Amino acid sequence: MEKPIQIRVKNMVCPRCVQAIKHILTDLAIDFRSVDLGVIDLDQHLNEKQHQALSQRLKEQGFEILESKNASLIQIIKNTLIHQIHHSEEILSTNYSEFLEQKLDQDYAQMSRLFSQVEGLTIEKYITRLKVEKAKEWILYDEKGMAEIAFLLGYSSAAYLSSLFKKETGMTPSQFKQNSGKRKNLDEL
């Protein structure tokens, strides 16, 4: 089987996004091989009319086709981290820099420089934001205690996670829960 033609899509961060993209492709009668976080695999290239229609429909739903190689790499980094932190139950046995190097077969220092230049924050800061959002989810739904949340997110203690949480949100985890805190959409991080 031939290698698929890939279209990279910005802001595609959850399983619901995948379903929305599949629906758009079906509506536009565009045959696709698969749709996964941040990527659409096609068997053949789109003609100009199809590309414009897809781009327009995606924008209407808050998505965007990534045209540049750098923008695509940044979205791949984000989607890889979102998948690992929000959708995977696997606990990393390595640090995130090694994880990204292995997963994406890219030099971490180069990825980090590009990410910081384009996004205006480091990969580490982005990871912290993702982890805080995951902690918010568990706190709001009363699914786990702080010690377990800290462990699952790779932090040494509940106290460390609590101080990081306060630094990011301006409130402690218990204040957040009492105030029925708001979570951010992952594409806003």
**What structural class do helix, strand and pairing data support?**
alpha+beta
Question: How much helix, percentage-wise, in residues?
Answer: 55-70%
The helix count comes to: 9
Distance between the termini: 37 Å
The count of β-strands is: 4
Give the low-pLDDT segments. none
The major pleated sheet works out as: 4 strands, antiparallel
Q: For the CA atoms, what is the radius of gyration?
A: 18 Å
What string gives the helices and strands in order?
EHEEHEHHHHHHH
Shape: globular
Strand content: 5-15%
Output mean pLDDT.
Answer: 91
What strand order characterises the main sheet? 2-3-1-4
Please characterize this protein's 3D structure:
The protein has 189 residues and is α+β, with helices and mostly antiparallel strands. The chain has nine helices and four strands. The chain has helices spanning 15-27, 48-60, 69-87, 96-104, 108-119, 123-140, 146-152, 158-169, 173-178, and strands at residues 5-10, 34-36, 39-42, 64-65. The chain has a four-stranded antiparallel beta sheet, sandwiched between helices. Helix 3 (69-87) packs across helix 5 (108-119), helix 3 packs parallel to helix 6 (123-140) and helix 7 (146-152) packs across helix 8. The longest helix has 19 residues, at 69-87. The radius of gyration is 18 Å and the shape is globular. The termini are far apart.
Summarize, please.
The protein is built from 9 helices and 4 strands, in the order E-H-E-E-H-E-H-H-H-H-H-H-H. It has helices at 15-27, 48-60, 69-87, 96-104, 108-119, 123-140, 146-152, 158-169, 173-178; strands spanning 5-10, 34-36, 39-42, 64-65. It is globular.
